[in-house]
Every structure is written in structure tokens, then in C-alpha cells.
Amino acid sequence: MKPIYMDNNATTRVAPEVVEEMLPYFSDLYGNPSSMHAFGGNVGAKLKAAREHVATLLGAQPDEILFTSCGTESDSTAIHAAIRSHPEKKHIITTRVEHPAVKNLAEHLAKNGYRVTFVPVDRQGRLDLDYLYQKLSDDTAIVSVMWANNETGTIFPVEEIARTVRERGIVFHTDAVQAVGKIPINMAESAIDMLSLSGHKLHAPKGIGVLYIRKGTKFAPFLMGGHQERGRRAGTENTASIIGMGRAAQLAMACMQDENTRVRTLRDKLETELLKRVPCSMINGDPENRLPNTTSIAFEFIEGEGILLLMDQYGICASSGSACTSGSLEPSHVLRAMGVPFTAAHGSIRYSLSIYNTEEEVDFVIDKMPPIIQRLRQMSPFWKEGRIA
Amino acid sequence: MWDYTEKTKDHFLNPRNVGFIDDFDGIGEVGSLACGDALKLTFKLDDNKRIADAKFQTFGCASAIASSSALTEIIKGMSLEEAAKVTNEDIADYLGGLPKEKMHCSVMGRDAMEKAIAYYRGEAEKKIEGEIVCECFGVSDVQIERAVRENGLTSIEDVTDYVKAGGGCGNCHDKIQFIIDRVLGNTPRAAKKPEALTNIQKIKMIDATLEREIKPALNQDGGDIELVDVDGNRVLVKLRGTCASCSKSQITLKHYVENKLKELVSQDLVVEEV
Questions:
Q1: Domain coordinates in residue numbering, chain A
Q2: Is A353 exposed, middle or buried (0-12, 13-18, 19+ CB in 10 A)?
Q3: Which residues of A touch B222 (CB under 8 A)?
Q4: Which of B13, B33, B101 lies closest to A343 in CB terms?
């Protein structure tokens, strides 16, 4: 059974063009880019090109691009760099809906001498900006706000926040893992100081991330050792993956239009039809400012794991915000922060599309979902044809 | 992805006995929407007072649905005496085992059965016995103790897997550990309790106990404590908790500190926050 993959905010298919570009660097072209011989040096030249491609995607300069091992490393590097560059400052601002890569680090720092402000969101998942601005102080070392939320697709006004934060002389970082490649980004005209992205969310392989660091931003390395990445991130370069990341950046540029037209239309069709065909269902997140590929739909009175397993019978891949799928006993911290009622949070399914999805696939999912929901609801003690039992 | 047995998958995909018996003899409801799983069990007896039919409605994950289905299959044909003896382990075994983290699904089945039998026998719905230990999931010390005893649990993680207690904010972990220790017969660390302490001795012992026993535990969770003064048997402390989302954290912390000091220094001590 060919999977119908609608879980692209979890990870994406590596683009065939990317695989093709990478393969020689696993076999014949294994040289170390730091070597003095041409065999290694040629790889170095290829890395330089890859760095330029990523810079172009972000509207940045190549020397503002730092390759890391993943989005999480980029986030950790950025936040640690900021607090170690400003050791006298003991306050951090982030949000209640960050990815665990930022959230759990912030919670860890909160237990180790830092004051951390977690900015709340409203029922649509929109940030309370006034609250954020009120909390800015001379003691604030860094403000870290994700560009777009991985669970709901809600886009946050990070450019605006970055400008206000900059006026106060405070470092601003954004986890843009879900945003890059889906919405236009131009660091040349931005006030954002640091930005994280992850390769495997935009059709590059797992194990490669990028941290953009604006020229002039105070920085302290996380990994120390060799001179790689101009001493900002030691360790022999993951050559094949960096080259793959470069190719993926080129493709992302080329596909952004498709992402915002065709993929958006597919997402809208999926969402509209499911809401129409399944009673007691609703969208989680801000319908206005949202990634073009993501929809999180709450199917009330049932539990997400069962939905996913029944979808799996048809090869349909998606995610859930339910407790049973999160590995903990409580539903998604994002949905809880938004105040999504338990009746809906447990049965929330996130569909995240990519350029590889087709209209046939969307139609198939639209066809299969209503009976799945109906089947589980008929088992649920809380369901009585649209009313709470 | 959870590693479910073929039988668990089968009972999820083809659940037996879904529904509600309108003229039921017994009914048992456990769980809630907030907790993430709930089960409504009904049964009907035949002329010989054996379970002729049993049906369930379940809100929950695949293993909750499979456990409910298994339970109804197990109890059909049983007398109520026999059904009352069905344990959560029996339900899990019937399915060829459940992932450890999902054992609470089988416990839910057992609890529903007990409630349904109690309903039939006209026993007043039992209030939650004992004292609530886990505020997040509303689990009492009696429930925790029973799970520990019946399933031979040895860690807080085990307890969370079986009855969910401790799976939320984590403030009750010390209490759960205390219950585990009590059931397993672990004697608390022996402490000398001299007959009468001079004030100096008392202050020194309190200080030493705070440093040795209490601070490390609190530090682990990001909290801290400072001894401000000792006035007779009143121990005045400053506390700093970290689980800001849980209003009970301060109370829990105070109880924990007080219990430790009572245990290791003197039964008469009272902890007060300043």
C-alpha cells in the first residue's frame, strides 16, 4: 500500500533531486573539505555553493549561515549563545506554544537561575503581544518566538516583534523550522537576529539544520573544537547533507509559489470538505494567518490514537494532539495553551501537506475520514448524534 | 507507534460487544473526557444469575477500546462472584499483553466491572476512598496502594503506567514513592530520635536534615528551601517551588518537608512558611 503522506510537519520526503545531488558524497567524493589536497578542496567548494543557496533562500549573506545537525541544535545554539554573551542578564521570553526544542530548554533554564516568561496565546492561538512587550526589560537576554506553529500552522508576527525587541537592544531568535520554504523570508530587511531551520522539514534529509546569525550578533559557540564553520560550530562537516540542504534550498525557492497556490488549495479543500461532512468538528488555530499546508481539525468526543490507527488502515499518515499519542498522559501543550476543550483536544488531527500531495489523495482522505470518525463515535459514551450523552 | 499485539489490534479493529443494554442489571462508568479515556459498561444476567450479555462504550485510545472489548468477552457466562475476581492483569493477558504505558487501560476495565457489580448489588456508589494524591488525574492513595500491591509495582513510573498518578505536574511523586515504600515494606531510613533535644541540638538536626535529605530532592525539581528560624517546635522556612501551574505545589512541598522532619528529627515539629 502506497502511503498517503499528510504528515509533512513531522518530516518530509527527501526530494529525488536532493538524493541525486548527495549520493556521490557518500561514495567517491568522500574528501574532507578542510584538507589541503584538491580531492578534499573540491568538496569544500561544493559546500560553499550550498551555503550560498541557503543564504539566497533566506535573503542572507553566506557567512551568516551556520550548518548544524538539526533544528533542535540550532535552537539550543542560539539561546545558549545569547545568554552566554550576556551573562549578566537573567531573563528569557518565549511562548507557551513553542516546539519542545525551545520549550524544554526554557523550562530547564528556569530551574537553573533564569526567569522565563512564557507568553500566552488566545483561543485562536494568537500571541498576546502586549503581554510580551510589557515583559521586555533590561534584564532580558533573549526573546525566542517561533515563526509558525508546528501543530496548528498559526503564523506569528515575528518581524514586528523583532523590530520592537531590537529597539530595546535585546536579541531576537525565531524557530522558523515550519516557516522556511512555505512563506517568503528576507533577512536582509528583517530585524531578526537569529533564525533556526531544519533540513528534513523541507525535503532535505534528517540530520542537517541551519542557524542564521545576523552579522554583528554576539555569539558564543556551543560545540568547541576545530575551526569548522569559522570556529562557530566545531566538527567535521556533514558534507553530503549540507550539499543536500543546498539543493533543497534551491528547490524550496522554486516551489514556494506552488506551495502557496496549489498546496493551499488542496489544504483548503480537505479542510472545507471534512468540516462539512463531519458534524462536531472544528479548526484549531488562526484561520487568517496560517501556513498554506497545515490544518488541525478537532473531531469531538473521540480520541486521536484510534483515529490515526484507523487512518493507517488506508495508509493515510497524519498526527494527533491527543494524550495517547504524545507519549505522555496529557494532550498537546499547544492545544491546552489555546484553551481547546478536552472534548476537542483529544480528538485533534493535524494534516500537513506538501508539494508531493495530489488532488486524488485529498479526495481519498475526504472520502475515508467521515466513516472513521462515525465508527469511533458510535463506540464513545459521550456521543449521541451530535450531543454530549 | 505503540507495539500492540495482533490480538489487541483485532479487538480494536473489530471490537466485540459495542453498545448499551437498555434493560441492564448492572452499569459501571469510569474515567472522563478530561482524563482522556472513559468506559461505560452494562451487563444483563440470565436466570442462573450468570452474565448473559455485556456491552461497552469507550472513549479512548486503541488499547482502551481493545481492553473494554476483551473485558466483555471474558465476563460473559461468568457469575458475578467470578467476574468480581477478574483483574486488570487478566484483561491484559487476554490480549496477549499491553504496552507497559497502556496498562491503565486494563485497570479501567477492572474498575468499571467493580462499579457495575456494586450497582447490581445496590451498594451505594463508593466515594473515592482515601485521600487524593495525584491532583491532575484525581487518583487516591488507596487506588495507588492497590495497584502497587496487585501488580507488584516498584517505581513511580510503574504507578503512572497503571493508574496515571504522577503523569501530570509531578508534584505527587514523593507521596507515590512513600506509598510504594510502605507497601513493599521498605523501612524508612533509620533515624535516631533522642528522647529530648536541646534547642541547639534540634536546630542542628533540622539544619542537617534540610541539607542532607530535603534540599537535594527539592533542587532536583528546581525548588529550594531556606531555614529562617526555629521557635520551639515551629520550623520557619522559606520555600521556592517551580511547578507554578499547580496551585497545590506549595502545600505539597510543606507537607513533604514537615513529614521528613517529623520522621528524622522530632514528631512534634510543625513547618511554617514565612
A1: 4-10+256-382, 16-252
A2: buried
A3: 110-112
A4: B33
Q: How far is CA A25 from the centre of its chain?
A: 27
Cell numbers 517551580 correspond to what residue? B242
End-to-end CA distance of chain A: 38
Residue A239's φ and ψ, nearest 5 degrees, are -55, -50
Q: How far apart are CA A174 and CA A192, in angstroms?
A: 7
- ipTM summary value: 0.86
Do A379 and B57 count as a contact with CB atoms less than 8 A apart? yes
DSSP A3-65: -EE-BTTT--PPPHHHHHHHGGGTTT----TT-SSHHHHHHHHHHHHHHHHHHHHHT--GGGE
C-alpha cell of A256?
A: 514556494
Catalytic, B105? Answer: yes
Asked if A382 and B39 come within 8 Å (Cβ–Cβ), the reply is no
pLDDT attached to residue B209? 82
A346-A347-A351-A352 Cα dihedral, nearest 10 degrees: -10
A301, A329, A378 member nearest B36 (Cβ):
A329
Q: Which of B116, B42, B139 is nearest to A381 (CA)?
A: B42
Q: What is the pLDDT of residues A106-132, one digit of tens each?
A: 999 999 999 999 999 999 999 999 999
Residue A284 CB contacts under 8 Å (≥ 6 apart), including other chains: A125, A151, A152, A296, A297, A298, A321, A335, A338, A340, A344, A348
- Domain A4-10+256-382 shares a fold with domain A16-252: no
Residue A106 and residue A128 in contact, taking contact as beta carbons nearer than 8 Å: no
Chain B residues in contact with A330 (beta carbon < 8 A): 36, 136, 167-168
Contacts of B36 in chain A (CB under 8 A): 303, 322-324, 329-331, 342, 346
Helix (H) or strand (E) holding A350: strand A348-352
Counting DSSP H helices and E strands in chain A, the numbers are 13, 15
Residues A126, A317, A310: CA angle, nearest 5 degrees = 105
A305 CB neighbours in chain B (<8 A) are: 2, 61-62
Which residue's C-alpha cell is 523541507?
A: A202
Q: Which CATH code for domain A16-252? A: 3.40.640.10
CA distance A275 to A277: 6
Name residue B191's amino acid.
A
Q: How far is B100 from chain A (nearest CA, A)?
A: 12
Between chain A and chain B, the number of residue pairs with CB atoms below 8 A apart is 77
Beta bridge partners of B183: none
Tell me which architecture the domain covering A4-10+256-382 has in CATH.
Alpha-Beta Complex (3.90)
Q: What are chain B's domains?
A: 6-120 (3.90.1010.10), 132-184 (1.10.10.1100), 199-273 (3.30.300.130)
Catalytic residue list of A: 324
Residues of chain B contacting A328 with CB distance shorter than 8 Å:
167
In 3D space, the residue among A148, A154, A7 whose CA is nearest the CA of residue A71 turns out to be A148
Restricting to B residues 126-145, those with a Cβ less than 8 Å away from any Cβ of A are: 136-137
What lies within 8 Å, CB to CB, of B51 at 6+ separation is: B43, B44, B45, B75, B76, B77, B78, B79, B80, B83
Exposure string over B100-117, b if 16+ CB within 10 A, otherwise e: ebbbbbbbbbbbbbbbbb
pLDDT in tens, A329-377: 678 899 999 999 888 899 999 999 999 999 999 999 999 999 999 999 9
The percentage of residues in chain A with a pLDDT greater than 90, rounded to a whole number, is 92
Q: Which residues of A touch B (CB under 8 A)?
A: 110-112, 301-306, 309-310, 313, 322-325, 327-331, 342-343, 346, 378-382
Query: 3-state DSSP call for residue B57?
Result: strand
